[in-house]
């Protein structure tokens, strides 16, 4: 006869399986449950994915703009240093 585990036990098992450096097989063995049982719990307790996540295109554009911003800041800093250098040469 199978054991009946509470919701808290199942959620903790899923958390361990996801966050520890142990394999799922090791986690299941340590908790005294079957590997397939742990797999079912992991599937059942998938974190909800927010529907308002930005699209891949938007994320690419943000990354591109961050790179451009970084380059522009570097160029600005170089120009400030050059201006200070040439101003001190008078």
Explained architecture:
By secondary structure, the chain is an all-alpha fold. It has four helices and no strands. It has helices at residues 7-19, 24-31, 35-44, 56-88. The longest helix has 33 residues, at 56-88. The model has no long low-confidence stretch (mean pLDDT 88).
Reconstruct the topology from this structure.
Blueprint: H1 7-19, H2 24-31, H3 35-44, H4 56-88
Helix pairs in contact: 1-2, 2-3
Comma- or semicolon-separated keywords:
90 residues; mainly alpha; Arc Repressor Mutant, subunit A; 2 domains
Summarize the structure.
This protein has 90 residues and is mainly α.
Q: Which parts are unreliable, with pLDDT below 50 for 5 consecutive residues or more?
A: none
**What structural class do helix, strand and pairing data support?**
mainly alpha
Average predicted local confidence, pLDDT: 88
**Tally of individual domains:** 2
How large a portion of the residues is in β-strands, by DSSP E? under 5%
The termini sit apart by 92 Å
* Secondary structure tally: strands: 0
- Shape annotation: elongated
Q: Can you count the helices?
A: 4
Biggest sheet descriptor: none
Helix content: over 70%
Give the helices and strands as they follow along the chain.
HHHH
- The gyration radius over C-alpha positions equals 27 Å
């Amino acid at each position: 006869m199978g054991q009946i585990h509470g919701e808290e036990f199942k959620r903790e098992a899923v958390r361990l399986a996801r966050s520890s450096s142990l394999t799922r097989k090791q986690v299941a063995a340590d908790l005294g449950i079957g590997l397939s049982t742990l797999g079912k719990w992991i599937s059942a307790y998938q974190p909800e994915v927010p529907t308002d996540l930005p699209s891949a295109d938007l994320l690419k554009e943000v990354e591109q703009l961050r790179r451009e911003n970084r380059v522009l800041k570097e160029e600005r800093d170089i120009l400030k240093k050059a201006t200070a250098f040439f101003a001190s040469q008078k």
